[in-house]
Design a protein that fits this description.
about 200 residues, mainly beta, SH3 type barrels, two-stranded antiparallel sheet, DUF2642 domain-containing protein
């Protein structure tokens, strides 16, 4: 356990879970769950000092490594973190390509075992596919960079939005959908953004 994150071995993977997303928990009784001890240690190292373990340190340790992340509607994303900014990170997925993800909406992160890549892709080929652009410091500023462009908010989940960003003012994004329907979206409820 770190300052704002907890690590759980679930019998298969190490799960890095931000404490803010844990509603409750209780200890299991002996023999209630037979979980084998991990054969391999996690690819994310914390330096051995629990005070060094935090969400930000975990994101930096996971940067460039094959990773599964969970944000929304039972749709884990597979890819790797390419850059970490103040309140969001850039994530490259072979399916969605470059995505920008609000850090506060990250529910958990699972690093892949060493030398394993999503979808059986060759590690080098997978990493060379990512094209990054100049990043800005905050998630709101990143959203503003997409004004007059077609985007997808929240990766097509039940609370997704697709359209052209027309304006960003304070905490509200004005999005115009396909048939000129205007939608006003609170930035605090935007988990991901990616261009089309």
């Amino acid at each position: 356990m770190g300052t704002d994150i907890i690590v759980i071995f679930n019998g298969t993977d190490y799960m890095y879970i931000p404490i803010i997303h844990i509603h409750s928990f209780c200890p299991l009784k002996k023999n209630e769950l037979d979980t084998l001890a991990p054969i391999e240690s996690s690819s994310i190292k914390t330096g051995g000092n629990n005070h060094e373990l935090s969400l930000r340190v975990t994101l930096h340790q996971a940067q460039g490594k094959s990773t599964e992340i969970y944000l929304i509607d039972d749709q884990p994303l597979h890819g790797y973190i390419t850059e970490i900014m103040d309140d969001y990170f850039e994530f490259y997925s072979p399916i969605y390509k470059t995505m920008y993800i609000s850090t506060k909406h990250l529910k958990w992160l699972i690093p892949y075992p060493t030398n394993e890549c999503p979808y059986g892709l060759n590690n080098l080929k997978f990493q060379l596919s990512a094209v990054t652009e100049a990043s800005v410091d905050t998630f709101k500023n990143k959203i503003e960079k997409f004004i007059d462009k077609i985007i997808v908010f929240n990766i097509g989940g039940s609370k997704s939005h697709i359209g052209t960003i027309k304006n960003v003012e304070e905490q509200v994004v004005l999005l115009e959908a396909a048939r000129a329907v205007k939608d006003y979206i609170n930035i605090d409820h935007i988990k991901t953004i990616h261009g089309v």
